Amino acid sequence: MAIKSNANYTQTGGIVQGKVLGNGSKVVNCEKDFAFTGGKLTALVDGAISTDGSSAAGIKCTGNCTITDGKISANCTGVGAKAINADGNVIIDNGSITLLSTGENYNEGADDKKSRAVSALSYTQNGGNVLAKSYDKA
């Protein structure tokens, strides 16, 4: 993982570019909330489901993911990968966001991990421009 925070991740400006390779890998992994209020974040991820069952992701947070401005680009490949994976809510107020998850879905036994542009408890978009694409094979 490129950036690991045991609490919140906050970015108010500047440029962060991360590229990770490996199953279960993440560019940003925070144990609480992800707050992005400006700047640029580019996340390139190539990885599938890890042996512990966690998905590879551009952004992973156990809390809420709030984007109020700036530019985010997350491009994830690999089986079951997620561009944004939040245990809480995803709220987008403004900004330019491109979320791509092009890996195939993962299905093994009772485990059902789908590739998603966004995986969250809830998703709210109040403004901004979002392009979200993910693999979906019926």
Describe what you observe in this structure.
- The protein has 138 residues and is mainly beta.
- The chain is built from no helices and 17 strands.
- It has strands spanning 3-5, 9-11, 15-21, 26-30, 34-36, 40-46, 57-61, 65-67, 71-77, 82-86, 89-92, 96-101, 106-108, 111-113, 116-119, 122-125, 129-134.
- Strands 1-4-7-10-15 form a five-stranded parallel beta sheet, with no helix packed on it.
- A hairpin with a 2-residue loop joins strand 13 (106-108) and strand 14.
Key features of this structure:
5-stranded parallel sheet; 57% strand; 138 residues; mainly beta
Strand order of the largest sheet: 1-4-7-10-15
User: Helix coverage percent of residues?
Assistant: under 10%
Total strand segments: 17
β-strand percent reads: over 45%
Distance linking N and C termini: 31 Å
Order of helices and strands: EEEEEEEEEEEEEEEEE
Give the class from helix and strand content and strand pairing. mainly beta
Largest sheet: 5 strands, parallel
Rg calc: 14 Å
Mean pLDDT: 92
Query: In DSSP terms, counting alpha (H) and pi (I) runs of 4 or more, how many helices?
Result: 0
Low-confidence stretches: none
Estimate the global geometry from the Cα principal axes: globular
